Amino acid sequence: MDFLLNLLVSAGVILLLSYALPQVHVKSFLTALWVAFLIGLFNATIGWLLRGVLNLVSFFLLEAIIGLIVTALMIKLVDMLVRNFKVDGWWPAFIIAIATAIALALLGWARGGDEEYARLDHEPKIEQYFAHSEINQANTILIA
User: Fold this and answer.
1) 85 pairs with which residues across the strands?
2) Rounded to an integer, what distance in angstroms lies between the CA atom of residue 8 and that of residue 116?
3) Strands 85-87 and 24-26
4) Which residues 6+ apart lie within 8 Å of 111 measured at CB?
């Protein structure tokens, strides 16, 4: 379900930017959906390898920027493969990458994300329980 929602949001962003930017041309929503699917597929395969190599070169200091650059490269690759999708230049592809990243981050935030480790309403793990009880025992010994 998350994949389909991310795919629809990415296609919507691509279609909206095709109306906003004169350098981006998309024929229809189905083309934008196909482009979003291919960008995701290439990001998961070729982009993963490129990000790994480029992050090793930058010592993982520029991970977010490298992710955006690799996504822009994947957009240009899809531009060469899909006939009804055209991006004229590097900067419009980079703008699409930024807008898609922001939209997907906002979608993840709106859905609550997968940050269960940050929530305080779950039961403590058994190790945390024993560590907490040992601290309480140490405190009662010091007080008595």
Assistant:
1) 26
2) 25
3) antiparallel
4) 2, 5
Calculate the CA 45 to chain-centre distance. 14
Tens of pLDDT, residue by residue, the chain (144 residues): 788 999 999 999 999 999 999 999 999 999 999 999 999 999 999 999 999 898 888 887 888 999 999 999 999 999 999 999 999 999 999 999 999 999 999 998 888 765 554 455 555 556 655 666 666 665 666 565
Question: Tell me, what amino acid is at 75?
Answer: I
Instruction: Please say whether the beta carbons of 37 and 58 come within 8 A.
Output: no
- Report the distance separating Cα 37 and Cα 10, nearest Å: 9
Strand partners, 87: 24
- How far is it, in rounded angstroms, from Cα 51 to Cα 71? 9
**Cβ contacts of residue 89 below 8 Å, gap of 6+?**
23
